Amino acid sequence: MKPAFDLDKIKFATDPPTFEKAVALYESGKVTEFEEGIDAYSAVVLGTKPYRVSVEVRHFGLARCECYLGQNDTLCKHMVAVSIYAVMRGKKLELEDKKVFNSPVCSGKLGELNEEEIKKIKQEITYALKYIKAYNGPSRTWFAYQDSLSEGCSRLAKIVSELPVGEQTTELLVNLLLRLDKKLCTGGVDDSDGTVGGFMEEVVIVLQGYAKLDPKCKKAFVVLENIESCFGWEESLLER
User: Fold this and answer.
1) Domains of the chain: which residue ranges?
2) Rounded Cα–Cα distance for residues 81 and 90 (Å)
């Protein structure tokens, strides 16, 4: 039975340290006795001691584990390792599969994108932004909501980090910042933990790197003049 989640979902919805530990468990053969049930997978993960783990087929993160974290309803490395096994079935993980993006970074590579590439990236950005949505649920769902914000920012970090440096991509990132700013100002996003705001500040640093590598990129900053942003993130991009 194929899971409803894929490796990208696992990677972007898991904090990097936990994902890396889960990968280590998977690659060292610590996921044993893997079985498929009607609506869940089960396995024994060999950690400090053997832990029995079950992971629901339909949704990544709905899982149980006998370890301390699992007993306290916290996503643990054992749950993630079994989820990886459910997707990969023992196959080798490639380097790209294991690469995590803690923060967006400047690729340092000058370049241009063709129309198809731009279209694809815009679609990926729009998809990632769906995870950064308004919060109007009960307080008990707040932590799950924050996880959604983190996943959205992680997905965006990958996109940003792989972009070439140029006027095209500068415009894409400026537009991304404006869309995120709108979500924070009027879109009902609860960024109490500063997840989205912190990501935006990191993208600003990326854009500053763009401007150093290619001064023509600064032309895309003109649209930021006279805007009223949530917390003044644009100011450093407008400094002369």
Assistant:
1) 7-98, 115-237
2) 11
pLDDT single digits (tens) 134-154? 998 887 888 889 999 999 999
**Alpha carbons within 13 A on the beta-carbon side of 102:** 4
Q: Does residue 8 contact residue 151 with C-beta atoms inside 8 Å?
A: no
Those residues whose C-beta lies under 8 Å from the C-beta of residue 230, and which sit 6 or more positions away, are: 181, 184, 185, 197
Per-residue pLDDT at 7 exceeds 80:
yes
Distances (CA, A) of 30 to 2, 14, 42, 157, 161: 21, 19, 13, 30, 32
pLDDT band at 102 (very low <50, low <70, confident <90, very high): confident
Q: How far is CA 229 from the centre of its chain?
A: 24
Question: Burial, 25: exposed, middle or buried (Cβ in 10 Å; 0-12, 13-18, 19+)?
Answer: buried
* Main-chain phi, psi angles of 64, to 5 degrees: -135, 145
Which pLDDT score, from 0 to 100, does residue 240 have? 63
